[in-house]
Amino acid sequence: MIQYLVLLGMEAEMLKGHLDAIVLAALETGPAHGYAIIETIKTKSASTFDLPEGTVYPALHRLEQAGLLSSAWTTPSGGRRRRIYSLTKAGAAALADRRKAWGRFSHAVDTLLGGGRAWPA
Amino acid sequence: MASVKRASVKGAGVIDHYVATLHRELDFDPALAERLACEVEDHLRDAVEADPAGPSAEAERRAVERFGLAREIAGQFAADSVDRQARRTWLTLLVAIVVTFVAMRLRIMWLDDGAAPALAPLIDRYGFLAALAVSAIGWFAFRHSLFAPTLCLVGLAASIAAGIVRAGLFDQGVPLLVLLAAAGEFALLGLLLVEVVGFGRRLRRTASLRGAAP
């Protein structure tokens, strides 16, 4: 039980460190509002990452301030007004960079933990 | 109008209370508070609609619980806002230093120091140099501390005050360029003061939201 809780805590910390990249990746398929972004993250990670939902909003705001996302209010017919976030060109480039960096990092850790080929490949 | 509604949520539901609390915790940035309150309310209403048991007070409570503590979320926003405020303060400081340097050089070129008190040119020069040295050290070592920009502000203020004394005692009339440079110095000093005060306020707010001493 304690091991499980420690593992959950580790996953939460790891997720926080990569939250910006995860949010960028969640918007890669198209614009979405906050709730849909969180649902995408939950679905794609098979609920492995289960941070408090509100955590995603500071990340969205940070990414928007950095010019990696843009956002605008929209009101669908008969629906509620929503703030929709989209990936900018700079955001798409940043996502590609972070993917490369993550690939190198995860390969190195995998090798060190004994699960992969010698590093660098 | 929306903020008036948020201020009085007596008798309202769990979501209304939560949104009002979040709005209050984000008081360091009213525009952000307003925008986020709308977004979060939308989010929580979506979550309630998606609840398998259907909309109810219990579903609202579950949605709020999954969302996280308002204070913690506001704390993350506050930490980000400190970073932005620090960048803005340092940028203003950099511009103030450049303008003060130009104004100081103009005073040296155009003014006769004979009529000024002996200390004025020294304070003008060394106040500026002290501000420059503190800002260089502060940039590398204490970028998120209020100490370095405050000390720079004092150094620049001393330099500018001494410069005004020099210019004021010049008995042949002060050239327009020197006056304009001094006006620029004053304007930037005021702006820097506003930024430093804002920086201090945001540092204190972040510390209080995160439960630590400033």
What is the rounded Rg of chain A?
A: 17 Å
How confident is the prediction overall: mean pLDDT of chain A? 82
The named CATH superfamily of chain A: Winged helix-like DNA-binding domain superfamily/Winged helix DNA-binding domain
Q: What is the CATH architecture descriptor of the largest domain in chain B?
A: Up-down Bundle
C-alpha geometry of chain B: rod-shaped
First-last Cα distance of chain B: 34 Å
Largest interface: A-B, 18 and 22 residues
Mean pLDDT of chain B: 80
Most strands sheet of chain B? none
Order of helices and strands of chain A: HEHHEEH
- The figure for the number of domains of chain B is 2
Question: What does it look like?
Answer:
The complex is a heterodimer of chains A (121) and B (214). Chain A has helices at residues 2-26, 34-44, 56-65, 89-112, and strands at residues 32-33, 69-74, 82-87. In chain A, strands 1-3-2 form a three-stranded antiparallel beta sheet. Chain A is mainly alpha-helical. Chain A has a single domain (2-87), classed as Winged helix-like DNA-binding domain superfamily/Winged helix DNA-binding domain (Arc Repressor Mutant, subunit A). In chain A, a hairpin with a 7-residue loop joins strand 2 (69-74) and strand 3 (82-87). With 214 residues, chain B is mainly alpha-helical. Chain B has two domains: 2-68, no CATH class; 82-209, Four Helix Bundle (Hemerythrin (Met), subunit A) (Up-down Bundle), CATH 1.20.120. Helices cover 79% and strands 0% of the residues of chain B. The longest helix of chain B is centred in the middle third of the chain and has 41 residues, at 70-110. The two termini of chain B are 34 Å apart. Residues 1-5 of chain B have low confidence and may be disordered.
